[in-house]
Amino acid sequence: MTTTNMTKEYILDAEGKSLGRLSSEAAALLNGKSSTSFAKNIIEDVKVKILNASKVKITGNKLKESLHKNYSGYPGGQHVKTYEQVVAKKGYREIIKHAILGMLPKNKLQDKRMKNLSIEE
């Protein structure tokens, strides 16, 4: 019995799209929700590539007011930065990655699904 791996590749253009809509679309594709053989406990063979990350639309004062929280696991290890500080240091890639990570299910498969995501500025 032979099986063939049919990897589906999706390319999303971030130009002009809002952060939330782009992230929810990418999270649904990484979950495999568009597949006919969807199951919660199986990682679909899907690659998602996001282009033009620096042209994503962030409306209002979100760059100055929204917070990006990171916790190292140690006491006193919580770091809170504004989106503006994160963009200056790591670029828009980190904000999009953080938004998609928040939309995926919190289980053992979360990190494995994130490996199928690539973001280009």
Features:
121 residues; two-stranded antiparallel ribbon; Ribosomal Protein L13p, Chain: A
Task: Write up this protein.
The protein is of the alpha/beta class and 121 residues long. It has helices spanning 19-31, 62-65, 83-90, 92-103, 110-114; strands at 8-13, 46-51, 67-71, 78-82, 117-119. Strand 3 and strand 4 form a beta hairpin. The longest helix has 13 residues, at 19-31.
The portion of residues assigned to helices is: 25-40%
CATH architecture of the domain at 8-58 and 92-119: Alpha-Beta Complex
Shape: globular
Return the structural class. Answer: alpha/beta
Give a quick account of the main beta sheet: strands, pairing sense, barrel closure: 3 strands, parallel
Which parts are unreliable, with pLDDT below 50 for 5 consecutive residues or more? none
Question: What is the string of SSEs from the N terminus onward?
Answer: EHEHEEHHHE
Our Rg estimate from Cα atoms comes to 16 Å
CATH superfamily of the domain at 8-58 and 92-119: Ribosomal protein L13
CATH topology group of the domain at 8-58 and 92-119: Ribosomal Protein L13p, Chain: A
Portion in beta strands? 15-25%
How many helices?
A: 5
Mean pLDDT, to the nearest integer, reads 93
Number of strands: 5
CATH class of the domain at 8-58 and 92-119: Alpha Beta
Cα separation of the termini: 42 Å
Q: What order do the strands of the largest sheet run in, or round the barrel if closed?
A: 1-2-5
Write the layout of secondary structure elements.
Elements: E1 8-13, H1 19-31, E2 46-51, H2 62-65, E3 67-71, E4 78-82, H3 83-90, H4 92-103, H5 110-114, E5 117-119
Parallel strand pairs: 1-2, 2-5
Antiparallel strand pairs: 3-4
Helix pairs in contact: 1-4, 3-4
